[in-house]
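ASSEMBLY PREDICTION REQUEST
Request ID: AP-0331
Submitted by: J.K., bench scientist
Number of chains: two
Total residues: 520
Priority: normal
Notes: Please return the full assembly, not individual chains.
Input sequences:
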Amino acid sequence: MTAFDLSSDTVRALNQHLHQTPSGELSVTNPGGRHCIACGIDSPVDVSIDGHVGYYCAGMNKDAQVTIRGNAGPGVAENIMSGTVRVQGNASQYAGASGQGGTLIIDGDASARCGISMKGVDIVVAGSVGHMSAFLAQKGRLVVCGDAGDFLGDSIYEACIYVRGKVGELGADCIEKEMTTEHVKSLRQLLAATGIDASADEFRRYGSARKLYNFNIDHADAY
Amino acid sequence: MCGIVGIYLKNQDLNPELGGLLAAMLVEMSDRGPDSAGIALYRDPVPDTSCKLTLYANGSYDWSALQREMAAELAAEVKLEIHASHAVVVSSVPVATVQHWLRTERPELRIMSAGSAIEIYKEKGQPREFVRQFKLHDLNGSHALGHTRMATESAVTTEHSHPFSTGMDLCLVHNGSLSNHNRLRQKLRDEGVDIQTDNDSEVAAGYLMWRLREGDSLEEALENSLKDLDGFYTFAIGTRDGFAVLRDPIACKPAVMAETDDWVAMSSEFRAIAQLPGVSNASIWEPSPATVYTWGQ
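STATUS: Completed
Returned structure:
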């Protein structure tokens, strides 16, 4: 296994190595809250980070499996494309922001703006999320096993939000929707895939009321 | 952007190391604030009958002449210790007497802090240079706050640097920007609060000073600031016995807190806290928005 110790190796050396399409396993020790660790990976490598990371860890991830054995600072897995990023502790604000694909799993809590502007990523949070989560969410699924803070799903487009616990005030144009058998089935599969122990039957579903849409295909000529 | 650090020592055996611990945290926050650095340090409290002030002189200054004249004119013992561009004065007369004398006889000096335990040092330039100039590693204490500034809305000078004094043994450091500071500054000046620069954070400090003067407890003053201050902020407030933390309701500006058996720490980022001993066993959490956190004896 390749190993990087960030008390002596630089983040740049680590990331340059990760950009040279490695495979197999790679371990990172002593992250010390540094920024941009394991960003921009574009290959099926398995990265394990032993400790707490700072801003933008595993940003733009593609194909890789990144596990953070600690807490993550703001913007973990920002713009994730594919692969899996797992935070075994808590994540700070805007986790999974604008993620386009793949899966972000947070075993603890996520703070404000989790999944802001998500565009296809699946985010599963075993704990709770802070205010304005899934703000402007466009596509993908945000699953919250605990509670969700105020203004959940504000100005949401077509993403799907599942919450097991309490939800604060809903954001503009976000409403509770029927949990059909199809939704339960799809959620059950996602929970099983992420290894999070929660019963899909206990969740409620939230999504867009589609009242904020300004674009109307019948008026396309007018725009 | 700016960087904030704070540390409160639960284990007093660590008091001699406070300056060194603070220095490590401060330097780690250099990327967030390369323009200036400052600290508020709480140590060696003087008896109730005495007072301690930190003074700042812009340029070289004859501190020993000040000490002599002050002692003669106030007919009191005056101890003075120089720290780079600052000096700490301890005198056995009421603080108001010293403040009045300084303002009338030495208007060129700026009073950075007043109280019984607080000392404030701040200077423009890189945090690493600040640590060297002020010999932070030699400073003991029970708790301290620090700030690294990236100026966004007013000039880079020592006067515009943080921490700002907010009253006896109180100070404020700020990461963020306030949007209603011009109107609030005018209101505070009308209330008789002395605000010396066009800096937004000084307005927040002046606001707390005013609320405390009006009879608010520190918690009440901070709760009121949630109503009256518009903008983005993470505040850390130093008190004689500890410190407090407050984030605005939107909470864009980062903050992380950590605690072990030996210390409680806060910072803009975990990497500053990662410098502290025993951090691998610390409990770590992010302070919630619009919630007042306090630590102290």
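REVIEWER COMMENTS: The first helix of chain A runs from residue 11 to 19.
SIGN-OFF: pending second reviewer
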